[in-house]
């Protein structure tokens, strides 16, 4: 009977490390026409590492120390990477006060009397024009698929830090499996367009970049015009997009908020689990009808 088929479908998922929260979620998975991935932590490892530091004046160590200070109150993956780099290089991190964040853009704080910000090149450019040589270095680093953040003091650029977040080993296979299933994979990212394009080209996926958290919701809405959409994410910022999708899928290694909001979860932490979920749903529906 139908409930029995659904129960056995859900149980089959559990055996493979795929959590499906109920029959409605199981049925919807097989119907999705597109799968939107939040880049960080789903298609990439979500563990960026500092690769380049450019100081316009002063030393790289000073630039790293100031950036790490501003980032010390942030739980963003970029913040963790910058703090790790400071520790690895034996750089003392000064104290920060008045710390705050602008979601999808920057973190701010006062360090030793100076009002500092670490944020995207786009945010830096909003504060004032970037020197041409700095803009050129940023473009070159982004073309390599790196994320660049700019340190500003009183709104003026002081230098940059580039970070690389490697693609997950299973990302290419996960995307290819979706295409074989006739589902359109799309990468959503708050990263800039050049970085997004460089990573997307490696993975063979369409990309929508420079999305603020609200833009990700709008992107899901647009994709839904062509049919049901699954959203795969792992972060606190992803919860609204997970909820807005026809079916939200949390990466197993992600935050509790993402796990709670989602309709399904890849407890085995494999991106290829998305196509497996879709296959499982279709097989279950075939048994019912
Ligand atoms: P993602 O789509 O990768 O989750 P986010 O929306 O979290 O991206 O961030 C988008 C961009 O905003 C980052 O690439 C970075 O330039 C900037 N940003 C966000 N948080 C921080 C932070 N803590 N420090 C520096 N830059 C940040
Ligand atoms: Mg994120």
Automatic annotation (TrEMBL):
Keyword Magnesium: no
Broad class of where this protein is predominantly found: membrane
Compartments (UniProt record): Cell membrane
Biological classification of the source: Bacteria, Pseudomonadati, Pseudomonadota, Alphaproteobacteria, Rhodospirillales
Keywords: ATP-binding, Cell membrane, Membrane, Metal-binding, Nucleotide-binding, Phosphoprotein, Translocase, Transmembrane, Transmembrane helix
UniProt KW Ubl conjugation keyword: no
Protein name: P-type Zn(2+) transporter
Family listed: Belongs to the cation transport ATPase (P-type) (TC 3.A.3) family. Type IB subfamily.
UniProt source species: Inquilinus ginsengisoli
Source organism superkingdom: Bacteria
């Amino acid at each position: 009977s139908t409930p029995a088929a659904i129960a056995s479908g859900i149980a089959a998922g559990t055996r493979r490390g795929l959590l499906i929260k109920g029959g409605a979620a199981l049925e919807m998975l097989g119907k999705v026409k597109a799968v939107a991935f939040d880049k960080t932590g789903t298609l990439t490892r979500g563990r960026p590492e500092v690769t380049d530091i450019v100081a316009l004046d002063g030393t790289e160590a000073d630039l790293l120390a100031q950036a790490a200070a501003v980032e010390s109150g942030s739980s963003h993956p970029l913040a963790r990477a910058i703090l790790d780099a400071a520790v690895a290089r034996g750089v003392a991190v000064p104290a920060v006060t008045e710390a705050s964040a602008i979601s999808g853009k920057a973190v701010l704080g006062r360090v030793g009397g100076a009002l500092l910000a670490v944020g995207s090149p786009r945010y830096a450019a909003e504060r004032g024009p970037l020197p041409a040589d700095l803009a050129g270095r940023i473009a070159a680093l982004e073309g390599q698929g790196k994320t660049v953040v700019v340190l500003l003091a009183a709104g003026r650029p002081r230098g940059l830090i580039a970070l690389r977040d490697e693609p997950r080993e299973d990302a290419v296979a996960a995307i290819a499996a979706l295409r074989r299933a006739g589902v359109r994979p799309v990468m959503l990212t708050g990263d800039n367009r050049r970085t997004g394009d460089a990573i997307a080209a490696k993975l063979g996926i369409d990309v929508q970049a420079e999305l603020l958290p609200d833009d990700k919701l709008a992107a899901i809405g647009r994709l839904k015009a062509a049919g049901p959409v699954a959203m795969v994410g792992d972060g606190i910022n992803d919860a609204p997009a997970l909820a807005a999708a026809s079916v939200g899928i949390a990466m197993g290694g992600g935050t509790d908020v993402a796990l709670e909001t989602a309709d399904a979860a890849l407890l085995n932490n494999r991106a290829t689990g998305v196509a497996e979920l879709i296959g499982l749903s279709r097989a279950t529906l075939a048994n019912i009808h």
